[in-house]
Amino acid sequence: MARIGVFVCHCGENIARTVDCAAVAGNLADHPSVVCSVDYKYMCSDPGQNLIKQSVKDHQLDGVVVAACSPHMHMKTFRRASLQAGLNPYLVEMANIREHCAWIHERTPETTVKATDLARAMVEKVKQNVPLDPILIPVTRTALVIGGGIAGIQAALDIAEAGRDVIIVEKEPSLGGHMSQLSETFPTLDCSQCILTPRMVDAYQHPRIKLYTYSEVEKLEGYIGNFEVTIRKKGRSVDIDSCTGCGACMEVCPSKKAPDEFDMGLRTRTAIYTPFPQAVPNKPVIDREHCLHYKAEVRALARGKPVRAICQKCAKVCASNSISFDGGDELVKEKVGAVVVATGFQLYEVGKDQPEPYLKGYGEYGYGEDPDIVDGLQFERLASASGPTGGKILCPSNGEPPKTIVFIQCTGSRDAAKGIEYCSGVCCMYTAKHAMLYQHSVQGGRSVVFYMDIRATGKGYDAFTRRAAEDSGAEYVRGRVSSIYRHDGKLVVKGVDTLGGEPMTVQADMVVLATAIRPQPGIKQLAQKLSISYDQHGFLNEAHPKLRPVETNTAGIFLAGCSQAPRDIPDSVAMASATAAKVLALFSRAELEREPQVAKVDQITCSGCFHCERACPYGAVEHLEVKDRRGNVIRVIAQINPGVCQGCGTCVANCPSRSIELDGFTDSQVFASIQALSL
Amino acid sequence: MKFGYYPGCSLHATAREYSESLLTLVDALDVELEEVEDWACCGASSAHSTNHLLGVALPARTLAIAEGQGMENIVAPCAACYGRLAGAAHEVNADPALKEKVAGILERPLDNTPEIINVLAFLQQLLPVIQDKITKPLEGVKVACYYGCLLVRPHKVTQFDDPEQPESMEQVCAAVGATPLAWNKRIECCGAGFSLSRTGSVIRLGREILDDARAAGAELVVVGCPMCHSNLDMRQGAMNKGQAGADDLPVLYITELVGLALGLDPKAMGLHRHYVSTKPLLDRLSTALVASEGKVS
Q1: How far apart are CA B159 and CA A234, in angstroms?
Q2: Measured in Å, how far apart are chain A's first and last C-alpha atoms?
Q3: Which of A216, A211, A224 is nearest to A531 (CA)?
Q4: CATH (one of 3.30.110, 3.40.50, 1.10.287, 1.10.490) for A4-132
Q5: Which residue of A75, A371, A396, A650 lies most exposed, with the fewest beta carbons within 10 A?
Q6: A449: nearest Cα among A390, A384, A514
Q7: What pLDDT is recorded for position B289?
Q8: Would you say the C-alpha torsion A59, A62, A67, A71 has a positive or negative sign?
Q9: Across the interface, which of A361, A362, A485 has its CB nearest the CB of B184?
């Protein structure tokens, strides 16, 4: 005969305002097997917990029901208390009489009846509970960081500095990300590369950091503490170990017309190239799309003709024999215990043709059609000392300094009708920076900034935007621009000054669009590979927007920087350090304790249909080969990896032969609680 | 094929050539237009600028009658009529209380079933038929497609084309062989109903539109709205006066342009009714077209 204790919480007035808690305790006292039933003002307080502990001992309880708030709130509290009193924590259940009852009903007798019923249901359930023990899983104490921008670099350095190994996978040929393209950074106007490149070198030279550049994550298998990642090393054609980075190959390359991605297409580069002089590693890569040899190879293969060596001038001048045209992509596997996703952003390429049907373009702004209409990153390159103009702000069309320049904030952002309703967060600040850089660079120039409102909430940000608007000489106009077109050699910007209440037209030489931040292309495919979720815009979802901002719902995978939402540099760095703290906490123990409430397969009745495998959102179902004594495989059935299983129960509901049970939520427990409701 | 048809006042008066070209065109395409019986004024702009309820109820009357005639759709070639009919349909659909009230005023059932179609959507639907019947493709004819304000706006009502970067008219023009130009004033305001009250403003706005079309190299401007047409055609003399290089620029309804590609009689389509003479254009087209006709056959 079970000995159950029932503890009814008033939650101050939260529950007691509408539920007669003493009556609930009284009703439960008469319930079969209940040997003690009490109510108390705050069951989660120390005296409340002591009441439970004392009762477990005094009444020799073998089951506890706390009728209080949501188990999300205090299940851990009460399980810990029971454990301290010597009772297995999984013999504790909670009846949620706050969110499910007190908060949603008026004070009527029925409310108390409902609270009683909820508690009864849990009493019947707990009678069926069995003791469970936590699952222990070993941890591989190496972290994988996807993305080598400032967020990825920061996370990797923090983890490595704490003495744990890190693997960085960066899809571009160099570390650095978008921050390496920026000219100056707000709000202090310090040079972006000057503060970033030492970090890049630190990461490159750190004995605990292993770097895969020009590589992408192909596959991630396993679970927290025990992931196995497959990395695709894209064919670089240059052996970065033997290459000395002398640059002779780039001087002889005859294919010079590839658009330079680093300079946002504002100049061209050779087919064999390093993205920028401070690249890490400072070793070139062959862009196969533009290399004469590879182009000829593609043509030859398409025509079924033999492949001949074409050009290969770079290989001929290479003193260290580092260039080879034979190799292709290579797949390597690494074992890691945690993953930090820091894949960054791309800018919204406004214009007529859009990749997603919900995006509506801003084609009327003429971006991509007129060379003097540029986006924020292109302007960064124009203003950067390492850029195509050596830091002089010049119109791409004619190389003249723009006498009048127009900045348009919120191009694409904050307009649901155009497809993106969110604020991109950084544009108010970088436009203010651009306006200042312009006013410094072009003496006597006129700059006009069209804005919706100024959002500058970081430390020192408001002072910075005020300086731009009030002291720099830039004209800040609150209003939107309806169209931009070329007329008589000028860019005609038609807008409205909503504070002045008048339409206004600016004859400009250059227009800079502060286009929206969007997640990287391919983010959804990556999210699917990692089994993590993303929002309608493709930004990765955090586990809780306030309390778990850098965790995902998949244990062991963390988020930093713009992969989660638009972020500026300080926020990205802070997030990255936060992920490092999470990873290091995970790596602080050799073994990991997991909740034992996981699914289990009945090996006798399982037919191996694997409906469960298709239903499982976490990839927890494995194939188990059942063998006879001679070692022949006679059946293949499902087995659930307790390290991966999150205990959601989807497989249980999907199993046609009812061969899966969820520990802690077995059929007998669930049916017992339902039957208690019908008493 | 059969469509419901709401001509509105313009097509019976100032825009006779719009009506004539449309009817000539549908005849040639074996398309039947069934006119809404006893239709009333759409209310633009006097009704809706006087009283909101009147502005909805007046076009709703036409919708109710069309519904009674079992029409599935109504072609409204005039952009203002289109805007009023589609706007009323949108409003009563969004507000059941208003729908009930309007039905009460009209003393007719109003289920709001017919789809309101503008001239561009109408021609787009007919493109396969049109392309079958092209006899004189307008090859190399450079046209400036002018939408004005109402054909594709407001987007929540029309749910048709991009209001800032429309392309439906260009698609129709390109389908009949013409070369639509990229130019800057496609969706600017022509001054519309201010033609009489603020003629000076209308002339200034129209002049900017025509100048830009000429600068882009247009041989003619294509419109789908009687108000745009009357402003750009009737007032063009005043717009061009004293302007160096401001040669006459014919303004054609899209139905006239399509009709020309089908080899329909310019006179039957009312091309002689324009203020800016279409004769030089027709002469040039006929020589060019005769040449291209030779090529086709």
Answers
A1: 45
A2: 20
A3: A224
A4: 3.40.50
A5: A371
A6: A514
A7: 55
A8: positive
A9: A485
Identify residues of A whose CB sits under 8 angstroms from chain B CBs: 352, 360-364, 417, 482-483, 485-487, 492
Residues of A in contact with B165 (CB under 8 A): 352, 361, 363-364
For testing the chain A interface, which of B164, B204, B205 should be mutated: the one with the most A CBs within 10 Å? B164
Residues 139-198, chain B: which have Cβ within 8 Å of A? 155, 162, 164-165, 184
Which H or E run includes B208? helix B199-215
How far apart CA A186 and CA A229 sit, in angstroms, is 37
Class level of CATH domain B134-296: alpha beta
pTM to 2 decimals? 0.81
B245 inside 8 A of chain A by CB: no
Bridge partners, A123 (sequence order)? none
Please name the member of B155, B165, B215 whose beta carbon is closest to the beta carbon of A364: B165
A76-121: pLDDT as tens digits:
999 999 999 999 999 999 999 999 999 999 999 999 999 999 999 9
Which tokens go with A104?
């949603």
Q: Cβ contacts (< 8 Å) between A365 and chain B: which residues? A: none
- Higher pLDDT: A307 or A165? It is A165
Q: So where are chain B's domains?
A: 2-117, 134-296
The residue of chain A with its CA nearest to that of B154 is A417
User: Cα(B99)–Cα(A616) distance, rounded to whole angstroms?
Assistant: 49
Least Cα separation, residue B212 to chain A (angstroms) = 8
Q: Which two tokens stand for residue A600?
A: 């289990």
> Which positions in chain A touch B162 (Cβ < 8 Å)?
360-361, 363
Nearest-neighbour CA in chain A from B164: distance (Å): 6
The answer to whether the peptide bond before residue A572 is cis (omega within 30 degrees of 0) is no
**Does B204 lie at the interface with A, CB-CB under 8 angstroms?**
no
Spatial distance between the Cα atoms of A203 and A198, rounded to a whole number of angstroms: 9
Provide DSSP, B213-235: HHHTT-SEEEES-HHHHIIIIIT
Q: Please check whether residue A429 is in contact with residue A456, taking contact to mean a CB–CB distance below 8 angstroms.
A: yes
Is A361's CB within 8 Å of B165's CB?
yes
Which residue type is seen at A542?
A: E
For chains A and B, count residue pairs whose Cβ atoms are closer than 8 Å.
20
Dump pLDDT digits (tens) for A360-419: 788 899 999 999 999 999 999 999 999 999 999 999 999 999 999 999 999 999 998 887
Could you please state the CATH topology (level 3) that the domain comprising A347-517 is classified under. Answer: FAD/NAD(P)-binding domain (3.50.50)
On whether the B2-117 domain is CATH 1.10.10.60, my answer is no
Q: Parallel, antiparallel, or unpaired: how do β-strands A338-341 and A258-259 relate?
A: unpaired
